[in-house]
Amino acid sequence: MNEKRRQRSGNPAVRGGATEPPAKPAKPPRPVKAPKPAKPAPPQTARPSEPRSFGSSPRLAKRPAPVAGGFDDALSVPTAGLTYPQLLRVPGSAWWRALLGVALGLLLFMILTSVINQAIVFGFWAIGSPQTPYAEFVDAATKFLNPVGMLGANLGLATLIVICAVLLPIVHRVNPRWLISVESHVRWRYFGICLALGVVAPVLIQGLATVVEGAPVFRLNENFWLFLIVIILTSPLQAAAEEVFFRGYLLQALGSVTANPWFGIVVSSVIFALFHGVQNPALFVDRLAFGLLAAILVWRTGGLEAGIGAHIANNVLAYLLAGLTGTIAATRGIREIGWENAVFDVVGFALFAVLALLVARKLKIHRTTPPAP
Q1: pLDDT score recorded for residue 61
Q2: CA gap 86, 80 in Å, rounded
Q3: Chain-centre distance for alpha carbon 220
Q4: How far apart are the C-alpha atoms of 311 and 157, rounded to whole Å?
Q5: What pTM was estimated for this model as a whole?
Q6: Among 42, 128, 172, 330, which residue's Cβ finds the most Cβ atoms within 10 Å?
Q7: Is residue 44 part of a domain?
């Protein structure tokens, strides 16, 4: 029996005749620990300070979804439900930012517009008329006796767009595209309709003025065709720039100080009228009324489209009529008007405002920032 066990043993020493050591008792198996239940995954929420990464759910992105590494990464985005004057009321906004921005904007307005204007006038004088005394050339340009003066003035005012585009991200930490509308882009269909209405309303008012005052005498202004090119190419830019600055930036900056939109509407309109220089009370009221109506339109429609359309139409038609009647210099030099002319103008602005509001309601355009997609 023991012999058979030695032969079957797997131990060589035992098979050789050695006694097999007694087997050690087997250790009892270790108890298997039950696995811990898995913790539920935390709900995935997007942090407002981080841009949405590629592939994440669009419902978790902040509005509008920025491109990774893009310009918006370090800028604030207005929340849903804000009116146009409130678009700069973002996290981190403060009253001192508003006052700093307004002060810088007005200072840059007075410096840059003049510098650009004078640089253009000087360039044309140096290239085209060096034989003319410079002071004489500048005086003629300032009075719009030649197209160079209009070109310099319009392009100088166009720098207001650049000023606003710099102030918004640096002072207020907001993308400049929010100056356009509560949807951060131009609503082109509405703008086109407002531009057409801006042409119709002044024409109707001019027709009434013709009935009361008589038809104007048509006589082409000197250098009319050069003036016409400057009017068509630069007057829309100048009008849009004024709207972006006065009804856009100033209205939003002042609106970030208080939630009441009337503060920004009234103050920006007064500044707009004052910056047009010397004027009698009727002309001041005329310009103040335009500023107020344009600012109200911006507030009630959520964007600059109506104001820009009205301003472009007003300036282009005014200087076009002046060019056809030989009165461009006289139009430039207007410092006073009668109260009857102011009434005609205000009625025309009001007619345009009512039509623009009706169109906005018909198109159902956003008056406040829309919710996130």
Answers
A1: 34
A2: 11
A3: 38
A4: 14
A5: 0.78
A6: 172
A7: no
C-alpha dihedral sign at 128, 131, 137, 138 = positive
Give Cβ neighbours of residue 17 (< 8 Å, ≥ 6 apart): 6
Q: CB within 8 A of 317, min separation 6: which ones?
A: 199, 202, 203, 206
Give the per-residue SS3 of 280-296: CHHHHHHHHHHHHHHHH
From the CB of residue 346, how many other CB atoms can be counted at a distance below 10 Å?
18
Beta-carbon contacts of residue 34 (< 8 Å; ≥ 6 apart) = none
Nearest in space to 18 (alpha carbons), one of 29, 30, 27, 9: 9
Q: What is the pLDDT of residues 134-182, one digit of tens each?
A: 999 999 999 999 999 999 999 999 999 999 999 999 999 999 999 999 9
The total of structural domains in the chain comes to: 1
Average pLDDT, the chain: 83
Length of the chain: 373
pLDDT of residue 245 exceeding 80 = yes
Classify residue 313: in a domain, yes or no. Answer: yes
Residue with tokens 């509560």: 182
Q: Which of 118, 98, 109 is nearest to 173 (CA)?
A: 98
Nearest 5°: the CA angle 67, 72, 77 is 115
**Residue whose token pair is 């004024």:** 242
Q: Which residues, listed in sequence order, are joined to residue 303 by a DSSP beta bridge?
A: 181
Kindly report, residue by residue over 94-114, the tens digit of the pLDDT. Answer: 889 999 999 999 999 999 999
DSSP secondary structure, 97-126, as one string: HHHHHHHHHHHHHHHHHHHHHHHHHHHHHH
Q: Say how many CA atoms lie within 13 Å of 99 toward its Cβ.
A: 3
Q: Give residue 147's domain range.
A: 76-363
Residue 27 counted as domain residue: no
Q: How far apart are CA 249 and CA 159, in angstroms?
A: 13
Lowest pLDDT segment from 75-84, 130-139, 265-274, 321-330? 75-84
Torsion of CA 325, 320, 347, 244, to 10 degrees: -150
How far is 332 from 314, CA to CA, in rounded Å? 14
297 located within any domain: yes
> What is the Cα–Cα distance from 150 to 143, expressed in whole angstroms?
9
